[in-house]
Amino acid sequence: MASPRLDLDGNLINPITICMIGAGGFIGSHLCEKLMSETPHKVLALDVYNDKIKHLLEPDTLPWAGRIQFHRLNIKHDSRLEGLIKIADLTINLAAICTPADYNTRPLDTIYSNFIDALPVVKYCSENNKRLIHFSTCEVYGKTIGSFLPKDSALRQDPAYYVLKEDESPCIFGSIEKQRWSYACAKQLIERLIYAEGAENGLEFTIVRPFNWIGPRMDFIPGIDGPSEGVPRVLACFSNNLLRGEPLKLVDGGQSQRTFVYIKDAIEAVLLMIENPARANGQIFNVGNPNNEVTVRQLAEMMTQVYSKVSGEAPLEKPTIDVSSKEFYGEGYDDSDKRIPDMTIINRQLGWNPKTSLWDLLESTLTYQHRTYAEAIKKAIAKPVAS
User: Fold this and answer.
1) What is the phi-psi region of residue 216: left when phi exceeds 0, alpha when psi lies from -120 to 50, beta otherwise?
2) Distance of CA 344 to CAs 161, 278, 353, Å?
3) 3-state secondary structure 172-220
4) Which one of 19, 110, 184, 277 has the fewest beta carbons within 10 angstroms of its own beta carbon?
5) SS3 at position 71
6) Per-residue model confidence as pLDDT tens digits over 74-99
7) Is the dihedral of CA 74, 75, 79, 85 positive or negative?
8) How far apart are CA 241 and CA 366, in angstroms?
9) Rounded to whole angstroms, what are the CA distances from 106 to 48, 109, 180, 222?
10) pLDDT tens digit sequence for 226-241
């Protein structure tokens, strides 16, 4: 008989029912795997698609059969949503439009998806006294204070102007015509609403701010496991180029700096939030890996090396090309220079620290992508175009 599972304070962890909105996506699929394989919890998996969790739903002989139920629904217009939240102990909301190319080309859809569509979820949780874990984004921080300092300022070397703290850092966005900030603004506003529900109506909540979670099944490869039109986030863009044997496009020279964290490390953090409500309720958590910071150009160079290793193919003679943000994303694009998460709060409350190096997470991701997509892309490239 398995030993009882205890939380961080030594208390017995009782099985709960989790309503997971967006369970069929990248993060949701990994979280469902973790919950099925390592916990006794039950999951009501809500999404429009279930491709990434089919292996958890079939066949009926799986050891967790009966503990995960898929409900095909769109939270925009489905009367079943409140009933599913009512029968669960905890709701996790992962649903969002979160692709940078959409922020300034589909700003209305972006704002509706990330704010308007999330309102009923917050409302139902608050009215029915249900706990909520809401997934936000590191983009709520916007631009760093350091990005506004003069180029020759010695203060640009001070991490205090760049490290992002949940309870201190301001949220600085670009001007209104820079519609790239539509996503960040919508996400910040829903955070403020959740926080207000907690303060005024006693909603038990946790807000998660992911900093570039990377791993197998992430984002999409255009035309293969996602739309042929549109631009995914940077790592999926680079993966797509590598799989197709094309140069990696560096937007505005690839000088922006980012940190990346392995999905399996990040899911460990989420499980701690789920199973330690006394430590997680009322908290906003950065979940990232400040040790895995690189410029986008350095990321491209590293991914080129890693892909050559996992595929056995020689790198292109000219592996990268520079493009302007206007050319790549269209009018209205803007960006932040650095995003480095402060880890004080999550380490203090949950004792969590990421483990996986950038090289190792890239090797895991690109190995999966090469194995899964290489043949499909070769067929797509070889397919004759209809006249």
Assistant:
1) beta
2) 16, 18, 10
3) ECCCCCCHHHHHHHHHHHHHHHHHHHHHHHCCCEEEEEECCEECCCCCC
4) 277
5) strand
6) 998 889 999 999 999 999 999 988 77
7) positive
8) 12
9) 20, 5, 10, 18
10) 666 666 788 888 999 9
For the chain, count helices (H), then strands (E): 14, 15
- Phi then psi for residue 60, to 5 deg, are -70, -10
* 164 bridge partner residues: 341
**How far apart are the C-alpha atoms of 339 and 260, rounded to whole Å?**
10
* Residues annotated as catalytic (active site), given as ranges: 183
CB-count exposure of residue 135 (10 Å: 0-12, 13-18, 19+)? buried
This prediction has a pTM of 0.93
List C-alpha distances in Å: 249 to 30, 239, 267, 384: 29, 11, 30, 26
Q: Which two tokens stand for residue 13?
A: 């962890």
Tell me, what amino acid is at 323? V
Q: Taking residues 171-183, what's their average pLDDT?
A: 91
Which two three-digit tokens encode residue 338? 């650095």
Give the Cα-Cα-Cα angle 346, 349, 350 (nearest 5 degrees).
75
Q: How many residues does the chain have?
A: 387
The pairing of strands 293-295 and 257-259 is: antiparallel
